[in-house]
Write a structure and sequence with these properties.
This protein has 135 residues and is mainly α. The chain is built from six helices and no strands. The longest helix is centred in the C-terminal third of the chain and has 26 residues. The protein is elongated and about 55 Å long. The model has no long low-confidence stretch (mean pLDDT 81).
């Protein structure tokens, strides 16, 4: 159970990574479109306030899928993380085409990259706890 909790805590990598990439991409777009005054706080309000539905759904989906997917078995770790990325990204891919909201592309790519980083962190946790990765 303690090991599962440590794996569960690696979600901060995805949340922080997607948030930072989202902030950076909106900042660059806003700086180009709006200019410099108030851009730092404006982007933060936009990402946190307007994007609240995205963040709530994203965080809940990550935690629920981790709870379901990561059982006591360490088998198929790579495939589990890839499946989690596909499942969580699917609604956002739909919204890219339906609402023409191109910023979700950046967030999906960032989530894929953070899943890869997260995989390395999980492997370190398993190695430090003397678990054998079964492929």
């Amino acid at each position: 159970m303690k090991l599962k909790f440590h794996v569960f805590l690696t979600n901060w990598i995805s949340v922080i990574g997607v948030f930072l990439i989202s902030y950076l991409s909106v900042f660059i777009w806003g700086f180009k479109e709006i200019g410099f005054p108030f851009i730092f706080i404006s982007v933060l309000i936009l990402i946190v306030g307007y994007g609240m539905i995205f963040w709530i759904g994203f965080i809940i989906a990550i935690f629920i899928l981790d709870f379901i997917i990561f059982n006591q078995s360490t088998k198929y770790l790579y495939e589990k993380l890839f499946a989690e990325w596909i499942i969580i990204s699917s609604p956002f891919i739909y919204w890219i085409f339906d609402n023409e909201y191109i910023f979700f592309t950046v967030q999906i790519i960032a989530f894929g990259i953070t899943q890869y980083i997260r995989k390395n962190k999980i492997l370190n946790i398993l190695k430090n706890n003397n678990f054998q990765i079964n492929r």
